[in-house]
Amino acid sequence: MRGAGGGLRLTGWREPGPAMSEAYFPVGPGLGTEENFLSLDDILMSQEKLPGRAESTLPRLAVLMGQGAGSAESIPEVTEEGTRDTGTGHGTFIARFRRIMDSSQNAYNEDTSALVARLDELERALFQVGQKGLNDFQCWEKGQASQITASTLVQNYGKRKLTEVDG
């Protein structure tokens, strides 16, 4: 059970998170009554594997390291790396991402300063991207946009697909 770089990774088995195919219901502006104390950065960072080294003895962990009386074969399959980390922060991240994007898309020509004040830097940037997309769409819908352009995400995806076919 060593993480990347040879460090011991001490995590327990967790139930899988909600499926991506679950029903999606839009929400009104605001982050809602439930407060997620973790920011998007915190959720993403908690999923990173960091090498570590214990500077003191950790009794009864020899089994996890494949040493001592037990062995790695005695660990049940449900605790294998692929099944153990399924959905630990995934559901929270998706819910928070949706809430921020929905809030940005449903706040056209409204004062969003109170809403944005509670967000961290990454979340503010995400909110601003959503607001820019909404404003661009509103301008296009009113005939104020001269030309529709593909987003950089779509352009990069097309380039990546072409290089995969060529290479």
Automatic annotation (TrEMBL):
InterPro entries named among the record's database cross-references: GINS_bundle-like_dom_sf, GINS_Psf3, GINS_Psf3_sf
Stored SUPFAM superfamilies: GINS helical bundle-like, PriA/YqbF domain
Main location: nucleus
Record carries keyword Chloroplast: no
Entry-linked CDD domains: GINS_A_psf3
Annotated Gene Ontology cellular component terms: GINS complex
Compartment(s): Nucleus
GO BP terms, alphabetized: mitotic DNA replication initiation
Keywords of the record: DNA replication, Nucleus
Statement: the UniProt record of this protein carries the keyword Nucleus: yes
Family: Belongs to the GINS3/PSF3 family.
Biological role stated in the UniProt entry: The GINS complex plays an essential role in the initiation of DNA replication.
Assembly mode: Component of the GINS complex.
Protein name according to UniProt: DNA replication complex GINS protein PSF3
Species the sequence originates in: Hirundo rustica rustica
